[in-house]
Amino acid sequence: MTAPVRGRIDKRQAILEGAFTVFARRGYDQAGVQEIADEAGVAKPTVYNHLHDKATLFRHAMETESQVALGKRLAALEPLLEPGDDLRATLRTVALELLRLHCDDRACALRRLLHSEIARFPETLDIVSASGPHRINEALADRMARLMLSGRLRSADPDLAAEQFMALLTGSMEARSRMGTRTIGEDELRSVAHASVDTFLRASAPAG
Q: Which domain holds residue 178?
């Protein structure tokens, strides 16, 4: 890849990251393209050269942030490929990291922006979902199926098992975090992670 192309990609990435930061801070209506340019460290015309207008900026910023979040969550599932002898401990490690990511400032901002702007940008639901819960559940279901086939979990529908595992983890988080406006401490996250895993295993452990 030549240097000019690399530089263009880097500028576009900086613009999208800056745009998401400003949208998260200001909301869509109050966010200005000049502020986004300042946040990204580029000139205002450069923003328009790459992404044309504020609406396009918003859509692409939401998509990019969703993809970054997806990458982190998929990495959090990796220990389940080789869970070792102590499955409970591995599930707790995975659960805690998923909760940390769910409660991350940018993850909370992504959900708030999705909820607040979905009437104006209904397509963002599909954009975020394509890199969000659906993809995580797919990957987690694959890990669950492997554990079922190896006899580590009771044989069942892996898609439903993944959905239930995530529901146990994140179901209470919006209320606990007051829609992302309250920081949840590490001890509370660990308590929720451990309780969720224990409940899941009581329902999903193999018989005998």
A: 61-204
